[in-house]
Design brief:
The structure holds two protein chains of two kinds.
Chain A: H1 18-26, H2 30-48, H3 55-72, H4 82-105, H5 111-116, H6 127-137, H7 141-152, H8 157-163, H9 168-195
Helix pairs in contact in A: 1-2, 2-3, 3-4, 4-8, 7-9, 8-9
Chain B: H1 3-10, H2 14-19, H3 23-31, H4 33-43, H5 53-65, H6 76-98, H7 108-132, H8 143-161, H9 170-196, H10 204-226, H11 232-239, H12 241-259
Helix pairs in contact in B: 3-4, 6-7, 6-9, 6-10, 7-8, 7-10, 8-10, 8-11, 9-10, 9-11, 9-12, 10-12
The chains are: A mainly alpha, B mainly alpha.
Amino acid sequence: MGMVAEASVGPDLQNVRLEDLMVRYQQADEVAAAQLVRLVSPILLRYLSARIATRNHAEDLLQECWLRIHKARCTYRPGQPLLPWIFAIAHHTRVDGFRRRRRIESYELAVDEIRDSKGPSQEVATVASLMFSQLLAELPESQRDVIVLLKVCGMSLGEIARARSTTVGAVKQMAHRAYEKLRTLLEEDSKTRVKR
Amino acid sequence: MTCRQIDELLDTPSGVRAASVSSETARHLERCERCRRLFEFLEAKPPNGEVSPELQARIEAAIRNSMTVASPMRPPRVFALLLFAIFFFIPVAATVLGGRASTAMMSYWQLGIVSAILAGGAALLAVSMSRQMVPGSRHRVRPKVAMAAAAGAFLLGVVWLFPWRFDEGFLGSGLRCMLHGAIFAVPSGIVFLLIVRRGFIISWPLLGATTGLLAGLVGAMVLHFQCQVLEASHLAVWHVGLPLVCGLAGLILGRLAGSRGAGSSHESA
């Protein structure tokens, strides 16, 4: 429990339990807090980027998310899985950020955005990862969330259910609908490539 | 091996999945192109977000500036018990001070079953509220389902157990009844709110609705012991209506609170 996907951590931190770091963080251990931020931020940023057009906005959300985590740290109970707790806060941060952004974009377009509006692809280095982002964008938000949490964050169905305040059955249903939709999208994508 | 079984396999985290690909699974993936494409797509590791050192430093600095010891909050069950205790004691106090005129007019079935329904609904809502105080809590019953069950069971109970008669003064007596219940519901709601604010609220509208509904059930319990109009239409509209109106008020107040960013918890030093 609490082991982050290999891609996100350095070799010296791979065996650190996130829950232990969180307990030390609650005890005002700055080193543990910094380690936790370093370990979890990459997958948090990936999760927060799912619906966000620009990298700047995703980074703002990441910072806001950590401030909320900091404020809420007394609500984490030692012994409980940490990722559902973190991603419940992250989900709500993202929803709030999206709503705020929608209000702003309805009447202004910031200069930074014009320069920066390459979308999520600017963080993507490979064709495969661009395809991953594009296919996920075709899914409804709830299904996309489940796939990102399952695949990128390596969370179990039970942990995702806790993060989304729902039941395992509901998460499973969303996941299976997402798989069916992805099968269709992959098939269409394959046919498109063959025609080219 | 069917496509549905592949779905079950895909539900497991990546590392576990890779280790458990059996020969049967491999055969299905060879035959079924749709499943194979999906399996390969989900097995490939997408990149995580790259966090710049400047952003990392900014986040760490922001945390360091307000770093204090934060003792873990009490378990959710403690708050659930506290909320339920308040639900229980306010009607008890009300009947001690104001009497329980209706209990002599009801049968044991009516008195017992409706009391049990109200208590059961309150327990369900108290547990839900305590879970909503902690992000990522396990909800055995989803909050919206808990609210629907509490209100629905109350409505069904009164419709089933009490006779249908339409007396004069339906509106007048009903509004007086509702006001009487609100006198207990509103302060209860304020107390509940002071308790749940100890947590970190993810969704203020949802918690507001749940809190309002529980506060309304407090008022409904008082009415159950004191209101002498024991007809189904009156009970269904005014007694059941009280928690629903309180729940709606809670939802609206919750939306206002959420839009003002009132989501924080109290840090224990």
